[in-house]
Amino acid sequence: MEEIDRRIVTLLAKDGRMSFTDLARETGLSVSAVHQRVRRLEKRGVVRGYTAVIDLDAIGLPLTAFVSIKPIDPAAPDDAPDRLAHLTAIEACHSVAGDESYILKVRVASPVALEDLLQQIRAAANVSTRTTVVLSTPYEHRAPEIAAEAADHSTA
Predict the structure, then answer these.
(1) How, if at all, do strands 127-133 and 63-71 pair?
(2) Single pTM value for the model
(3) Are 108 and 114 in contact (CB under 8 A)?
(4) Which of 80, 78, 133 is nearest to 105 (CA)?
(5) Is the dihedral of CA 100, 71, 128, 87 positive or negative?
(6) Burial 143-153, CB ≥16 within 10 A → b, else e
(7) What CA–CA distance (Å, rounded) separates 18 from 13?
């Protein structure tokens, strides 16, 4: 990936609503050249979408927790993500190395709602859970600094 494309990706990661005019000013390119490069990055799948960052407290979901899960029966099929996909309180599902199979990031309204969600997770996926409640989040959604080496491997 060219240095200018890395710069565009870094800028968009920090502000997905940045205008082509602002991107052009920050990169030293013309607006049409930036537009072409962004479209090319989208077509290549480097830029996969744009999203709004929501204040979850404001919409009634102030409690965040990480739920580690592992199958009760290790011989059972590894299909927990499919079995849990319908639970919209699960924001993310990460396959991990270690004792657990997956770590789920969940957002709920209250401790009672978390307890209910944990019961749903256990029943739906036949797993045991270990839960860590988030007390505060000093930062999140940080834009990555894209190194040349990392960008070169993304196209290999």
Answers:
(1) antiparallel
(2) 0.81
(3) yes
(4) 133
(5) positive
(6) eeebeeeebee
(7) 10
Separation of alpha carbons 57 and 10, rounded Å: 28
Q: How many CB atoms lie within 10 A of CB 132?
A: 11
Nearest to 129 by CA among 80, 70, 84: 70
In sequence order, which ranges of 15-133 are alpha helices (DSSP H)? Answer: 20-27, 31-43, 80-84, 111-125
- What's at 151, amino acid-wise? A
Are 118 and 135 in contact by the 8 Å Cβ rule? The answer is no
| Of residues 59, 151, 38, the one with CA closest to residue 109 | 59
Q: Which two tokens stand for residue 15?
A: 């502000």
Residue 70 — φ and ψ, nearest 5°? -145, 150
CB proximity list for 53: less than 8 A, separation 6 or greater = 141
Helix (DSSP H) and strand (DSSP E) numbers for the chain? 6, 4
* pLDDT tens per residue across span 110-142: 999 999 999 999 999 999 999 999 999 999 888
Whole-number Å distance between alpha carbons of 104 and 117:
12
